[in-house]
Amino acid sequence: MTTTPHMRRYLLVFLFLAGWAAAQTSAPAVSAKARALHDSALVVDTHADTPQRFLDEGFDMGTVTPVSQGHMDLEKVRAGNLGAEFFAIWVEPSWKGQYAQHAMLLIDSVYQQAARHPDRMVMAFSSRDIRAARSAKHPRLATLMGIEGGHAIENDLGLLRDFYRLGVRYMTLTWSNTNEWADSSGDIDDPKVEHHKGLTPFGKEVVQEMNRLGMMVDISHVSDKTFYTTLVISRAPVIASHSSARALTDHPRNMTDDMLRAVARNDGVVQVNFFSAFVDQKFLDAYRAQKPERDAAVAAFEEKYQKEHNVASTPYSAEVELEKEWAAKIPRPPLSSLIDHIDHIAKVAGVDHVGLGSDFDGVTSLPQGLDSVADLPRITDALLQRGYTPAQVRKILGGNLLRVFRQVEQVSHQMQTVEVKP
Ligand SMILES: [Zn+2]
Description:
By secondary structure, this protein is α/β, with parallel strands linked by helices. 50% of the residues lie in helices and 10% in strands. The chain is built from 17 helices and 9 strands. The strands form 2 sheets. Strands 1, 2, 3, 4, 5 and 6 form a 6-stranded parallel beta sheet that branches. Helix 10 links the parallel strand 7 and strand 8. Helix 7 packs parallel to helix 8, helix 8 packs across helix 17 and helix 13 packs antiparallel against helix 14. The longest helix is centred in the C-terminal third of the chain and has 29 residues. The radius of gyration is 22 Å and the shape is globular. It starts with a helix and ends with a helix. The structure holds zinc ion. Zinc ion (ZN) binds next to loops.
């Protein structure tokens, strides 16, 4: 069939409208009520892996990127009304001997971003700073940092204190690797790894020193035993910066109902991770089923990369495209899977003990309709539809985390002033 220019113009209009209609059905609009509530709330996210993009790719927060490339930039932050982000300082465990140095480079990359965008970002070091950044005449993104993986302190409390001085306000005791003082859920079944039945005596000192400094103790990633020991040791409420519920999605990275209740007794908060494999059992099953094939493909890619670049390890940023391709073979779960996790934690632990820990730029698949930080208002919309009151939604969006942060600051103040012997 041949077409005239006239017909082609009609065809283009038709295709445009069809595309628009498809976009509407895949991502329903947020209600005006939800939008107003979301825009008036102080929204806090406790985990984004964007610093690796700053450092490895030279990514700048001022660059508007397609969601296929990244979950975060300042335009998306504005669209999602994000008030505060805790950027993750994560160091590859195989880089032994360079942990602290690499952490310093990542910390610097966060400061560099804030310095480049003084009109839209501001470094923040306290719960008060977060509120001030938000309530200012021109609100800016309160920019905070959390270390992901205690191996970064290289078994040295002096380095822990230095990281605090540089602005680090939480530390995940482990990442997927057991370190020399705390067990991880990531390798707890690996007989080749030396475990410690939770925390070593030094690990307990780390927790106490974090309490004294006012650095939030983060139990995401740790083994169940490490979790329970930490709750006994910590004098301040703990956070799970990016963990979901195991009763709904059976992954060791997620928390059991018993753990959720323990966090509630501790007055802490569980910040739900958005990763499709952590919030949807069907996705997780498929993701596990493709693991042998995926791992082989990644290993082959790494070997090739390391040979070509003459390096001993591959940066995550280099292989993330491949990981995304594999994850994209599995249908994305509906947004309701994520909302189910928030709802479950709110029911089991209480609505005062749940929040958002997206894991943006650290995960390869997100639920439908949640393509980036710009889509956070959809969570508000879904929570209202489930019957949560505006006051409860505000707590989930950030109020709970701010309460815990303040309590951690108060415990620190108490330990550093009232209890200090002359
Ligand atoms: Zn993580």
